[in-house]
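dumping this here before i forget
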Amino acid sequence: MSNPNPLFEGSSSELPTILSISFASDPTASLGVQLTNHDNGLTNEMFLPGYASVAKLLDGDTLARRGSVKVGDYIVAVNGEGFRRFPPDFEDKDLEDVTEGLDLINLTEDAEANIRGGDNENQRKLKGRVVSCKKSGQAYDKLLGKIREVKSSTIPLHISMERYMWDSRVHSWSRFLSARNGIVPQAMTMIQAHERWRNEFFPIDLTEPFLQKILKAHAVSEIDVADEEDIAATVYIDFAKLQSLRLMDESESLSMEVVKAFVLYTETLLAKAPDPRRPKTCQFVDLTGVSIKQGFNVNILKKLYATFEPNYPETLEKMVMYPVPRVMASAVNVMLNFVNENTRKKFVITDDLLVVCKELGWNTKEIETCGSINGYMKKHLKHGLSFLFE
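structure:
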């Protein structure tokens, strides 16, 4: 077993991977996907490389499933002819091909070259071709028309796709735009600040002693126990453990280790999201054993919020704080007045276990069997061994 990397570089980048789906073995087959039209003249489409992406994989043994196509993949070329919104910043030869089951046997040299990006300048230019039309929808129609044209001919269809990570501009721009209510200059300022933050914040040195202390104590960890597929995985924060570690009352640098632990798991879970166009996580703040009146230090939440809000907009599904006595719920709401209104709407402050289970998709009966929320957490706790060092 290889040694874990002591540096966490983040879970996203701007560089895509590529896929090449060939119909040579079954010319009459369907790709087996539903597409999303990205040719609507909207500002949230301005960083999308093409005019169609995969919205859903259809059931069955389809070419898409055989070729490892995923939701969010973009069609950028058909039989070597590009259908792009803007030219690529890279060459196919520099990118990883993640296609599974690609069989180039019996393909013509031209067809193989089209799949791999071409072996001469003209082929590369054709595959990187930009298609722009006067009216919205026309480029998308041209793309579908080309697919139909090839399918009705004797030439096997080859579809070239690109896959981008969850925090690339391709996927993140719409989130930042939404966070700034569709105002492009403000969204651009926000996303540029976020990109500077990524460059400065990463890599995280996992060997830092206080970060290791937090991770080994499971004060911040991952809980992925949702019974329903449409409920996001959860970043778990054990507030009592954080307070027992005395990190919240120490220097700014030590408190930052809590933020780093939070970012580690937030990045990890967002990268696992089934749809990179809309990645989501939940957050569960376990206040078991914490006195709201005497022992609730809100400063750590302020620090987490100051990192999360400007850098992970529109990724929070729910943030649940439990248990908070009903008589103290108003006081906690006042303490959280630093949170913006849109995010506050996603907060659930409760002392009702049934509410917790409903919001996070947890199994009430299993919690009762475990004896407590804490016991349930211990059973389902996940922490990557790659994060831990002796």
